[in-house]
Amino acid sequence: MPYYMSQLEYDRRPVDPLDLQNYWHDGEWLWKGKIPKSYFQFDTYMNLTLEIDRYFSQNKWKRDISNYPDTNWDSAFSQDYDMENFIKYVWLLHEFTNNEGFTNAVSCHYNPRAGKIVIHPGGVRSLVIGLFGGEMVDSVFFNTGGFFQPFMDDMEAVDMEEMFAPGAGWHCVGIPDHGSIIPQPGKDMHIIPGHKKDWYWRIYNRITEGRLRIKTNMERNDTNISRYFYHWLDQWCVTEDPTVTIHFTNQPTMFDLQRSVYATFAEIDYKDTKLQVIQHAT
Q1: 3-state SS string over the chain?
Q2: Whose C-alpha in 138, 142, 261, 277 is 20 to 30 A from the C-alpha of 252?
Q3: Residue 27 and residue 25: Cα distance in Å, rounded?
Q4: Do 178 and 65 share a structural domain?
């Protein structure tokens, strides 16, 4: 029976992670190790462009958070997803770059509808990997439907009792989909609100203290790339004494533009064949 027609009795109540395997089909399991990036499906550049645009067009960097309760950060009660998502991206990109990867492996599963592996939960980490990741992705992977590829020969089957033992720090929920129960492991979720709030102030202080001054070779013209760049960043562009240099080679794409913005605000140096971002000492 095709996966989209198969049925599974599941009451949707929270379950112990060790119970999830009772719902899995033959060949399904959690694996840990590295997966080639080419197997993954990532978000489109347009979604990111709209998110960045809302952040700068509405001056989210100086939003008044004096009445923003701590309990609202990174929760269903968030008062400003656009602000929080941008902040979370630059924080996680900073971590990803300085630590040569995320502290914890990403949770992912095979999506038979798309024929690709998707990262979930972890939408922002997926975007960081999509724009800045290397050839391999450190993963905790569920092979929905018994999906198998040669790269899995180098992965290790998860010891469920060990991974989800009390005190190990990992938790897991099960999501009914694809005719199975998709495990979504996570770790250290409690640290996210604090990091978001810290990075709000890190961005705000950098700007208000005059420590964000951008020098670039981006031409001013009628192309979408140029219009977006200067719409977002013109107020901080200078011709001398920069704290950040953004240099494009050839005609940049939207992906290059997004990388330049995120790298600038994540305070990282970045270089590829089409873009270089240099953070200068202040």
Answers
A1: CCCCCCCCCCCCCCCCHHHHHHHCCCCCCEEEEEEEHHHECCCCHHHHHHHHHHHHHCCHHHCCCCCCCHHHCCCCCCCCHHHHHHHHHHHHHHHHHHCCCCCCCEEEEEECCCCEEEECCCHHHHHHHHHHCCCEEEEEEECHHHCCCHHHHHCEECCHHHHCCCCCCEEEEEEEECCEEEEEEEECHHHHHHHHHHHHHHHHHHHHCCCCCEEECCCCCCCHHHHHHHHHHHHHECCCCCCEEEEECCCCCHHHHHHHHHHHHHCCCEECCCEEEEECCC
A2: 138
A3: 6
A4: yes
- Do 180 and 222 reside in the same domain of the chain? no
Task: Please check whether residues 191 and 217 belong to one and the same domain.
Answer: no
pLDDT digits (tens, 9 = 90+) for 42-83: 877 678 888 899 999 999 999 888 888 776 777 766 778 889
Asked if 7 and 44 sit in the same domain, the reply is yes
Contact 254, 45 (CB under 8 A): yes
| CB contact burial 188-198 (16+ within 10 A = b; e otherwise) | eeeebbebbbe
The pTM of the full predicted model, rounded to 2 decimals, is 0.89
Alpha-carbon torsion (251, 90, 54, 49), positive or negative: positive
- d(CA 55, CA 60) in angstroms, rounded, equals 5
